[in-house]
Give the backbone structure.
Amino acid sequence: MIRPVCELQGRTQRMWSVLDPILDRIEKEGTEIVLAEKITQLDDITLSGEKVLFAVCLNDAGINMEYYRLLEGFRKHPDCLEGSVGGIIVDGSSELYTKALARRLAFSANNAGCTFPGRPLVEATGSLGNFHVLSGVRGVEPIEVYRQQVETLVRSLLDFEIPVPDKKMKVLAIHASQRRTSNTMLLWDKVRSGIEHRADIAEISLRDGAVTDCRGCKYEDCLHFGEIGRCFYGGIITERVYPAILESDVLVMICPNYNDAVSANLTAFINRLTALFRVSDFSSKRIYALVVSGYSGGDIVSEQIIGAMNFNKSFILPQRFAMNETANDPLSILSVPDIDERARAFADRMW
Ligand SMILES: Cc1cc2nc3c(=O)[nH]c(=O)nc-3n(C[C@H](O)[C@H](O)[C@H](O)COP(=O)(O)O)c2cc1C
C-alpha cells in the first residue's frame, strides 16, 4: 500500500479508520501487506508485478505534497510499476479535487506499467455527499458505504487477473475522423497493421452528426431501454455500436484532441453507452486510446478517457493504454520521428 504522508494530521483519521480494519482482516487471511508513506521508502520495495493500493488523503486545500513526489517518481522511472495492478482511494476535505487527482495518478501510474481493473477508484468527498445515493439505496450511513466500497475495492484488486480471450481477440475501433487526412486515423492505420494478422477488427465511424448526445432520461427509463438493447434515441449507436461493443474484447478510441477534450461525437458515444452499461458487464473488456494533439494536452484527453471508460464504465485500463502523439498539419503524423516503431510497439502491447 502506498499511502503518501498527509501533512495535516487531523485529516488522515477518517480514511485510516475505514481502511485499517479491512487491511487487518485481509492480513489475517494471509495477504502480506507492505506500507510505504514516503516515496524514499519505495527504493527498497519492488512494485513490479504486485497489487498496489494507492491511498491518498488530501489536506484542507485539497493537496498532498508527497503525492506529487510519487508522480515524479513514476514519470522518472517509467518501468517502475511494470506488470502491477492498481486500486485508488482518495479522501478529500471538500467536494472538489478528488476525481482530478485520481485521474492524474492513474494516468501516470499506467504509463509506468500499472494496469487498473474497471472501477478502481473509491473517492470520499469532504461531506461524503458522493455516497448519498448509495446510502439511500442500501439504507446505511454514508461512512458505511465508504467502508463497503473500500472492502470491495481491496478484495477485487487482490482477485483481479487480466482475462485472456480463448479465441481470436475481437477489437472494435471507434472514430469520428476523416479517413484520408486525419492524423489520428493515420496513426490508427499503423497500429491496425500491427494487429490485423492476429485479431478480428471492426471499425465504426461516427462522423457527420449521426450521433445524438445522451438525453439524460430518468434512471428507470434508461434501464428499461438498456434491457431491450436500446436507448431513447436509436440510430447508429443502438443499431451498430451496441452489438459491436458486446462482441468485442478490446475497444480502441481514436481521439483527436479537440479543445483539450475528446471530440463531441466520441463524447456522445461515451454518454450513450450508459443504457448498455446498465445491463451489461464491461469489466473483462480492455480500453485503449490513440490521442493526437496539434500542440499539447494529450494527457488531459487521456485522463478524460480514464475517468469515463475505466472509472465509470468499468473497462480494464491495461498498462500504457494510450498512445499520445503531437502532429498538427494534415498528414504530419507520418513524419513524427520513430512513429512506425512506436505504433508497432503499441500494437504488440495490445496483443
Ligand atoms: C475543433 C478543433 C479543436 C482543436 N483543439 C486543439 C487543442 O485544444 N489542442 C491541440 O493541441 N490541438 C487541437 N486541435 C488540433 C488537432 O488536435 C490536430 O489537428 C491533430 O492533428 C488531430 O486531429 P486530426 O486527427 O483530425 O488530424 C484542434 C483541432 C480542431 C479541428
Notes: Residues 183 and 333 are 5 Å apart (CA to CA). The two ends are 29 Å apart (CA to CA). Strands lie at 51-57, 84-91, 114-115, 121-124, 169-175, 199-205, 250-256, 286-293, 322-326. Residues 9-159 form a domain with the Rossmann fold fold (CATH 3.40.50.360).
